[in-house]
Hints:
- With about 500 residues, the chain is an alpha/beta fold.
- The protein has one domain: FAD/NAD(P)-binding domain, CATH 3.50.50.60.
- It is about 25% helix and about 20% strand.
- The protein is built from 12 helices and 25 strands.
- The chain has helices at about 15-25, 40-45, 50-55, 100-105, 115-125, 140-150, 180-185, 235-245, 250-255, 380-395, 415-425, 480-495; strands at about 1-10, 30, 60-65, 75, 130, 155, 165-170, 170-175, 175-180, 195-200, 205-210, 215-220, 225-235, 250, 265, 275-280, 280-285, 300-305, 315-320, 340-345, 355, 365-370, 405-410, 430, 460-465.
- The strands form 7 sheets. Strands 1, 2, 10, 11, 12, 13 and 25 form a 7-stranded mixed β-sheet that branches. It has a 7-stranded mixed β-sheet with strand order 6-7-18-19-20-17-23.
- Strand 12 and strand 13 (about 225-235) form a beta hairpin.
- Helix 5 (about 115-125) packs across helix 12 (about 480-495) and helix 10 (about 380-395) packs across helix 11.
- It starts with a strand and ends with a helix.
Amino acid sequence: MKYDYIVVGGGTAGVVTAYRLAEKQKGEVLLIEAGISDEQREDVLQLKEWHTLLEGDLDYDFPIAPQATGNSNMRHSRAKVMGGCSSHNSAIAFQAPDYDFEQWTQKGIKNWTPQEVRPFYNKVLEKVNLEKSDSENDCGKAMIDACEEYGIAAQDFENGNYHESAGWFSLNKKGGIRHSSSVAYLHPYDKIPAGLTVVTETFATKLLLDDAKKVVAVETNKGTFEANKEVILSGGAFHTPHLLMLSGIGPKEHLQEVGIQVIQDLPGVGEHLVDHPEGVIIWEAEQQVPEKSAQKYEIGVFCKTDPQLGMSDLMFHFGTEAFDMHTLPAGYPTSDNAFSLTPNVMQARSEGTVRLQSNRAEDPPLIDPKYFSDPEGHDARVMVEGIKTARKIAAQASLKPWIKRELAPGPDVQTDEQILDYIYKTHNTVYHPAGTCKLGTDDDPKAVVNTHLQVKGIQNLRIADASVFPSITSVNPCITCMMIGERCADFILNS
């Protein structure tokens, strides 16, 4: 029960960090995962089945707090399986653009410039297989042609170049099998590095610290595991702050409210929750939409709501189905033969919180994304423009033969006020929560980790997951989370 390093969370980043530490024979490494193994789980490994995992047995399926300006019925999907959300998502694979890391650098954060992070993306891509998902779906091709007619160039998405363009995504897969962090770094499990121990169905309930505020052990439902050197938290944007707060590390007033002894007052734990809100516009198809597709969401569109912007701020995922998860319950019509565009706010500014419901580890975190609450109204404005832009693309000649009628929001919804009301009622998330234990400078009172991912005020504790993002990545963050895992391992190996 004693190890040199303990990685808590076998998710997208945690698997990477644990593997690299063991690979370099840094010591005995323990990887703790609350969910099950993904080996021989066809429902997990077959990428085309990804949508069946949402709200299923392998999903924490977190509800959210009532939203003043958003869809209170929305739920956050988080994976209960090795590989985390890389075993649970649609495998859209992006390197974040240089723009994102330039924004981090402008906040005064060192060690995270575009030039410094690119080598670690390269290390990820040494293990993770990417394939361009050009299924030649005729409806998809018509969408790309319509974008070109509208003035958005057709282009492959490579090397962080996501200026105004439309094209086929790269997916982390091999054929029909997803190439999650677990598949890429650990499979087959009987050939993992000798110094790596993997345990599943083991839920961490508390970090144990000594009088010097040094983490010495991890308490779980299957006993206590001691750490000789370091503990790395990789539970994601919800579970990582949840575990910190249960352990007495977090906002002093909140911990006292729920009856937890304060070990380290860190006001930023559970703050700064950022995410990509996602709207949807759905058309019933005049022709039969082809079934041919890797996972129904193979095409993306990037564009600007203001030509003066240096970077696209609006992204669409194109789906060869009616994405009616929230429109149908809200009373909008649907169809078995339909396609959708889902606008999302790439650099969303609204910030929410993660809090404890109680001092019991078994109670899920209280998640309040506070969608569309940014004071400038940026997120709402971009989303409204997304619906309007989608309609302009749909009006192009290439898509006209495919459209029978607009199902949601429907032709009666035209003014900005009407569109925004529809968005509030029906929006979803792209399931990209981040920022709740953010990177920051020494003088940032809301920073939780330093530039080497070490938790402020605590010894022998780091974080490697999306919770450290100081601002949200503009694109799907899965590959960036793997990069964080590589970066964390490198910091430890060179410490």
